Amino acid sequence: MDIARTPSTIDGNNQLADAPPEPKDPPVIRREDYKPFPWLVPQVELSFDLGISKTTVQAKLSVERNPAANADPVIHLNGDGLQPLTVLIDGEPTDSWHMEDADLLLSLPGESHEVTITTEIDPSANTQLMGLYASDGMLCTQCEAEGFRRITFFPDRPDVLSTYRVHMTGDAEAFPVLLCNGNLEASGANDDGTHWAEWHDPWPKPSYLFALVAGQLVANTDSFTTMNGRKVTLNIYVRDGDLPRTGHAMESLKKSMRWDEKVFGREYDLDLFNIVAVSDFNMGAMENKGLNVFNTKYVLADEDTATDSDFDGIEGVIAHEYFHNWSGNRVTCRDWFQLSLKEGFTVLRDQLFSQDMGSEPVKRIEDVRVLRGAQFPEDSGPLAHPIRPDSYREISNFYTATVYNKGAEVIRMMRTMVGEERFRAATDLYFDTHDGEAATCEDFIRAMEQGAGIDLGQFRLWYSQAGTPKVTVRLEHDGETATLHLSQEVPATPGQPEKQPMPIPLKLALFDRETGKHHGEQLVTLTKAQDNFSFAGFAQPPVLSINRGFSAPVTIQRDTPVEDLVFLAAKDDDPFARYEALQDLIVSHLKQAVDGALDLAAMQSAREAIARALGAVLADDTLDDLMRGELLVLPSETYLAETMLIADPGRIHEERQAMRAALGTMLEAEFVALHQRASAVPFSLDAEARGARKVKTQALIYLAAGNPELGKQMAWAQYQGADNMTDRQGALMVLTGLTGIERTDALMDFYNRYQGNALVVDKWFALQASSMHPACMAHVESLAKHPDFTLKNPNRVRSLYMAFAYNPHAFHAASGEGYKLIADVILALDPINPQTAARFVPQLGRWRRIEPGRSALMKEQLERIASAPELSRDTYEQVSRSLG
Ligand code: 0A1
Ligand code: ZN
């Protein structure tokens, strides 16, 4: 049972209260109902007596009436699964409190008081990993969004800001390291084998940014001197044996700190910045003030155990959490509906950082791929919501690609419209104006308007309307003039049947066919449902390149002539547009193929055109290999399905694989040559060597599809000769999709080599669960019985089951067994870790967009979950929205 819904049985007079009926429907929280909290809590003193299975918490809150709110003599303190052991007002025991569900309500007679409450928790029983929990013998916390109420009773909402003083005591052997937010002010040993530490965080913060860690940890220590000369000690705490794998994270942290000073003028504000890596964590990482807690996946890396993309992931997540120190911590959110205020902005900041650290176009393509693969499907399904949602039942369900990634795109559009300089002026104004406050998206927009001098009246629709706008494009040519006809439609989404036109900034260029050149990129903003834009001086019809750099998160509908796509794929000077043309060429062909609209001859000639375009990519020596590798990646099956009203995942898989095989055959010699050339580049972490590794595995993927025997031989050779994880994993991925002894041998070798390294064993599970092998489902079923598998560790659960759920050919098996398997996982995981369980629901929630046979089977599984007697709020909300 979800503890949050456990009826309360005690009140302040220690009498048994009537248990209220179990709420069938968890309540809906609405944005429009926001009210400031009647009490301020300027200071908090916490005292922890730490133990793995019993931790005692004493919380002393100084509270005073909030002059900006309606007075209320009762202070409402949230709790989740807690019982108060003692309640004191101004040091005196009181019985003027009672429980309301899981919360504690306390009557306060005066204007200001000191409230002291003692609670006791069992971290070892906390499998949700929210609040204080045990991981591998250490204790750590996760408080965003509503975990603090599982530690002590508190107004657990982001607009209540307090300074924290924390005293922690624990066994010196079990917990030699005691960490909390802010600065360590004192520490010492007791006679009984325990020791203690006292931490003080001078910056007022909401409870979701509280963190505490206690355990046997070692640190990689370094330092950073800020632009104004503050010397900051940096620590990355890990398990003893992991220290040699923290170097990349530390370098990433120092780069992030320097970059935020240079690009956003943001300086770090404490003398200490600590990061702790834990292996049990629901998400990627958490930006707690001065004490970031990270999933080990986003800290630990070396060339033997991490791929190039793992290295990039670490750099990006370290930056993301560090950047939150300003966008999130110094300026926080008023309420959880404003989540995109900190997340959308921080994702944009980390994207811009990664663009600057590596290849700008490659990073842009990757980010757009994520948006299309994860956010577009969300925006077109039953879980669609605006980047600033209007309601929720469980806020954990709104840490979504929409709030994060579309949120970043929305701010990126503002930046595109005003330019970098004015954007910086606006972000400076935002930080200056709202420093120390709990702000709203509206505050951000207003700072943007004032600081950058732009009217965002209509643009606000991007915050309130869900759905990916569809822009239809037609180019007409008459005499000397080219006329662009644009129209837009924002699709209906749940709760939003009618939509208004939004401002859509589109970067475009018109190319002269003869010279292959254009007269400069332009920005047009479509603000109406329909509009025309004329361009003079074109004696011949130009070739249109539109939504360059993906300037707006929309889909473009256009019947672009194949020769124009081929032209752009070869000549566009915007690398993103070049990628896009190639993708369009492939997507439009595959859509026709899936529809059965092509006879043999048409199929052959379309594949030849694509092979020519890819051949040009292979031969183009102006491209670096990182970009070449990017251009070779085929549109995903999920994205292809998204471009169709109703998708047949089986047909999509067949046609995409058949095309890949045809390309592998037609370009066999070129791919073999590419693989040979790239294999000669020695290992290093520079762009050239990384590019070489990327194209090497891409070549193997095509070769394995076209000529499995050759692909197998080459992959096996790459596997055996690999001196780094990128090559080894790439080869193993290809082998895992094939049959034969090499597959078995390589998988066994990989497991034996890395047994005991949890992050690499995760890869081993994930490779098999995401493989192209026809028996993937059977493999997953048997891996679930592997001694290394557990439902208790979110990384392991994701490596097996999330990989499977996002492996279309396996998940969408026509028999429906894939759906059943995921529904079983949801039901088994829900009582253990509801947050992670609920994250599987969206895949089943796609049922309305899938062909009727499978659709019915998906819905059936959703209904089976819905009828389970006790569902968490998390899963209940996702399932009911998916069926609604
Ligand atoms: N604020 C974090 C994300 C995060 C959210 C909830 C968590 O609880 C399970 C953990 C992390 C970020 O954006 O990185
Ligand atoms: Zn974040």
UniProtKB/TrEMBL annotation:
Q: Which taxonomic lineage is given here?
A: Bacteria, Pseudomonadati, Pseudomonadota, Alphaproteobacteria, Sphingomonadales
Q: Entry's Gene3D superfamilies?
A: 2.60.40.1840, 3.30.2010.30, Neutral Protease Domain 2 (1.10.390.10), Peptidase M1, alanyl aminopeptidase, C-terminal domain (1.25.50.10), tricorn interacting facor f3 domain (2.60.40.1730)
> Which residues lie in Basic and acidic residues bias regions?
21-31
Question: Peptidase M1 membrane alanine aminopeptidase domain location, by residue?
Answer: 249-459
Per UniProt, what is one GO molecular function of this protein? alanyl aminopeptidase activity
Tell me which residues make up the Peptidase M1 alanyl aminopeptidase Ig-like fold domain. Answer: 467-558
Q: What is this protein called?
A: Aminopeptidase N
Domain of life of the organism encoding this protein: Bacteria
- Alphabetized Pfam families for the sequence: DUF3458, DUF3458_C, Peptidase_M1, Peptidase_M1_N
- Provide ranges: composition bias, Polar residues: 1-16
Chain ranges of the Peptidase M1 alanyl aminopeptidase C-terminal domain: 563-883
Give the Aminopeptidase N-like N-terminal domain ranges: 45-209
This protein's UniProt keywords: Aminopeptidase, Hydrolase, Metal-binding, Metalloprotease, Protease, Zinc
